[in-house]
Amino acid sequence: MRATVMYGAGDVRVENVPDATLAGPTDAVVEVTRAAICGSDLWPYKTMERSETGRRMGHELIGVVEAAGSNVRTVKKGDVVMAPFLICDGACVFCREGLHSSCINVGRWGVATPDAGQGEAVRVPQADGTLVVLPVGRDDASMPSLLALTDVMATGHHAAVSAGVGPGTAVAVVGDGAVGLCGVIAARRLGAEQIIALGRHPARIALAKEFGATDVVSERGDEAIERVRELTGGFGVHSALECVGLEQAVVTALEIARPGGAVGWVGVPQEEMVPGGVAFWKNVRVAGGPAPARAYMEELLPDVMEGRIEPGRVFDRIASLDEVPDGYRAMNDREAIKVMIEL
Amino acid sequence: MRATVMYGAGDVRVENVPDATLAGPTDAVVEVTRAAICGSDLWPYKTMERSETGRRMGHELIGVVEAAGSNVRTVKKGDVVMAPFLICDGACVFCREGLHSSCINVGRWGVATPDAGQGEAVRVPQADGTLVVLPVGRDDASMPSLLALTDVMATGHHAAVSAGVGPGTAVAVVGDGAVGLCGVIAARRLGAEQIIALGRHPARIALAKEFGATDVVSERGDEAIERVRELTGGFGVHSALECVGLEQAVVTALEIARPGGAVGWVGVPQEEMVPGGVAFWKNVRVAGGPAPARAYMEELLPDVMEGRIEPGRVFDRIASLDEVPDGYRAMNDREAIKVMIEL
Fold first, then answer.
1. Complex ipTM
2. CA distance to partner chain A, nearest, from residue B274 (Å)
3. How many contacts does A have with B, using Cβ atoms within 8 A?
4. Given this model, what pLDDT does residue B272 score?
5. Which CATH architecture has domain A2-151+292-342?
6. Which among A45, A255, A332, B243 could bridge A225 via Cys, Cβ 3.0 to 4.6 Å?
7. Are the Cβ atoms of B281 and A289 closer than 8 angstroms?
8. Which residues have CB under 8 Å from B194's CB, separation 6+?
9. CATH classification of B153-288 is 3.40.50.720, yes or no?
10. pTM of the entire predicted model
């Protein structure tokens, strides 16, 4: 079969790899019908050291079950399924608490299984814990939004939940990528009264407004902080959603949170240290991390099926598998917000 | 009148200063009957640069109202009152939300007023917002525990609340100072099932056990982290109370928090940067900051009056005003947990 392999910064290839097969009784094999390129895939795209063996890419996928191991109970051949960006057993103490991203048997695509999303098929370990059966056919019109649930929408939702967004709150979203845009959707869904989107890219800002942003701040750094404070009576927002992962974005989120407010951070941190003092002195809570997408997928599924949210609109480019390398380039050049792969 | 002035590291003097007087219609003058030396007073005691004018010390006090300005409504001459470690107006948006430590008119003792707790009397600005009238006489046996409410007990409670302590939780307290010991009291009061005290000082550990600690970890660094994990089924605690303020204590608190758990930090941070990555990857929430003692004083007062908590037991030494310099030395040498000043 064919799949995407990254060999180093900027070097993404689609090539022949061994077919996905069952290796144990709790595995399933899924023919991939939709996959995506993630903003987090751009970190290795920018920085990965050259590798002889390469690294299989992709952790967002929807597909059709081709085969299921003898112990698999919840999915069967022919089911249309989606998978979150982390593999989980669905049964451990953390999965039962809804924090599937801390599953004690957590697994990464391309590590816990040789396969990853950006390819023709995947072996899915712990299929019962990982896969969610979808109530639609393989080419339903809802596919982009369902695919968004596997990572970006779950992550934007996690930022909003972690930052305590609720009815009547003032919210700011730092980052105008796909996760930030989904953060706007999530903030609106949770009842925020004011949603300030920080960004300056015209297409992204237009989408943020359609998703429910009430204000846009296109300044950067200290000017952005000042502008958010002006828009919030001088105090800052109840909830700041940090959807980037760079120190400057963390600092901005901490600075624009009002005393007693919260920062929900979901941008994969590119630095180990964060400025804690800012949070401390004004009692700003910092929460978040890798989203428990497996839990949120089920929670958000009815909203997608009934048309209340349309996170699939963050996909502004569709690529075939062969076009994946160009999809990386387009996202890295900020030509595309997010690329959906149709197989 | 006489009051405590610090002139530099290790140089604490009790000397004559101008009498406390009313300067505005919202002021009160309070004759101090009890005050305390705080762990946070030891930071300047260790590091303060030499000053010609000196710095008035003390931010924990109980006393008797001597005079009240014409606009003061809630206290009158003769009332026995306590004051939190920060002055507040009691009326702004943050005070109304219960976050008095972020009052928009917040003031520090010795800064917003010339006076501070470790002296014969204080001028209290914003007396209505700051002072709480006590239902007891000036020398009631409850005085040590009431005095503890003005800072250490409120701060330990804030650590526990910020860390999400509730019925059935597993809690660890990092720091065996007066705040940490009050954190143990708070954790027990909030229903924690397991309370692990980290410390090795025999007298402090004995008191922690009397306050409700179920386990003691006397190891340090990585060994302490390992031991806490062993005591909690391998996962760590739901709530870690960081009651020190040094980076090593913050790291320990983050490391011993279980996935999805929380760190409540109340130790005044001595570094601006904290290791965020540890918190991020396991979705550990970090919350806390300066305690809204003014709110908690009222919340905890019935527990003190009815004998359910005895935070005053952290005072293991009593000093007269003249003995204050030796009290600093004793706390700095860890001879005393916390010193109460009787006037």
1. 0.93
2. 5
3. 107
4. 74
5. Alpha-Beta Complex (3.90)
6. A255
7. yes
8. B169, B170, B171, B214, B215, B231, B232, B237
9. yes
10. 0.95
